[in-house]
Amino acid sequence: MPVCQKLFWLEGATNKEMKGNFNHQLSESEIQPVMLLDLKRQYDTIKDEISEALKRVCDSGAFVLGPEVKLLEQNLSAYAQVDYSVACASGSDAILLALMAAQVGPGDEVIVPSFTFFATASAVTRLGARPVFADIDAVSFNIDPVDVKRKITHRTKAIIPVHLFGQMADMMSINEIAQSNRIVVVEDAAQSIGAELQGRRAGCWGDMGAFSFYPTKNLGGAGDGGLVTTRYEKFAQCLKLYHVHGMEPRYYHSVIGINSRLDSFQAAIINVKLKYLESWTTMRIQNARRYHEMFIDAGLDNKITLPETLPSRRHVWNQYTIRVKDDLRNNMKMSLTERKIGSEIYYPIGLHEQECFKYLGYSKTSLEETYNASREVLSLPIFPELTENEQRLVVKAIKDFVESREARRVLPAAVAKAA
Ligand SMILES: Cc1ncc(COP(=O)(O)O)c(C=O)c1O
């Protein structure tokens, strides 16, 4: 950027927090949009198969549960390396049903990360139990086993490690803690289908694993959907009972369940998409590698923190999440938005800071790594069909933002010196 433009940019800056106008040097025609997630690109490649699958469901007349759902449960059991799967209406319900099967109720505590989507903790409160928030590991964003251990009490009934952004939590440590305290482990694998630790998949490590088929997930349907995996028949039986109102036989209820059935349209779509999941995952991994190289080539790896894959893991990159320090994250996001480049903050606030969890009594900074992450994270486009050129545009936009910020810091001193 020419110096005169930089100066103009500086004059445009009002006070500490810039509000927009980060890219005024670009004309409207120079802006090339990059979507955070373009579902249509994927749909276009499997359109005919999806149409056939939906027609099959219409012709069968089986719209809820039925053969497609059964097939999905079999497919997912094989994929997640477990013996049993029970499909349900959403990932949120999958967590709820797993906790119900574990007999979580009033008086119990369930340890969950604070840095996660709301559903991880809301399922706990729905059953009258108390969520206990644990901090995260700063590199992987996943629950910190050391903090989990610290928070175990005689009331702890379950732990929900979340495999955030596509990478598995430290399940060896979590399982060890759980086994020595007779605690149930429910993996929240909503964002991590196909992720692996030591070659074993997400959903097969804990007592149960909860998956989501929400459209933004790596295996997304065309609406809501979820599924619970388990290696244990006793949990599978409970899950099967609880997701249909606790009804067995018909119109006889020994327990109070919920209505959480997967519809056959979703199952049919997901069965089609499952055939492509491995190749889409490979594309996500390639995109992550490419970002890594591009950010290093652009000299940005010491200006922003790049995401890492921890040893013995297969990261499936539901999100590519960088960290931006010095209160620059929000301005960087704004600058990308001006260039029509999609980005998102997962998550801007830890659950322990949420209004509805104030009664639990956490202070903002009581979970330090969660607090820091929520102020620094920014997720960039990483979907499988993202092109190399689009990734280049994302990296260039971040480079321009970082350089303009540096110019802003250096130039006033230089101008003062010259004067
Ligand atoms: C970590 C995590 N857990 C649970 C859920 C809930 O899944 P669903 O939206 O299918 O209810 C999500 C979905 O966003 C999630 O990201």
In the CATH scheme, the class of the largest domain would be Alpha Beta
Q: What is the number of E strands? A: 12
User: Uncertain segments of ≥5 residues (pLDDT<50)?
Assistant: 1-19
Give the overall shape: globular
Estimate the helix proportion, in percent. Answer: 40-55%
Distance between the termini: 23 Å
For the biggest sheet, the summary is: 7 strands, mixed
The distinct bound ligands, ions and cofactors come out as: pyridoxal-5'-phosphate
Task: Say what the CATH topology of the largest domain is.
Answer: Aspartate Aminotransferase, domain 2
Please trace the helix and strand order, writing H or E for each element. Answer: HHHEHEHEHEHEEEEEHHHEEHHEH
Question: What is the alpha-carbon Rg in Å?
Answer: 23 Å
**Strand order of the main beta sheet, please?**
1-9-8-5-4-2-3
Strand content: 5-15%
Structural class: alpha/beta
Kindly state the mean pLDDT as a whole number?
93
Helix count equals: 13
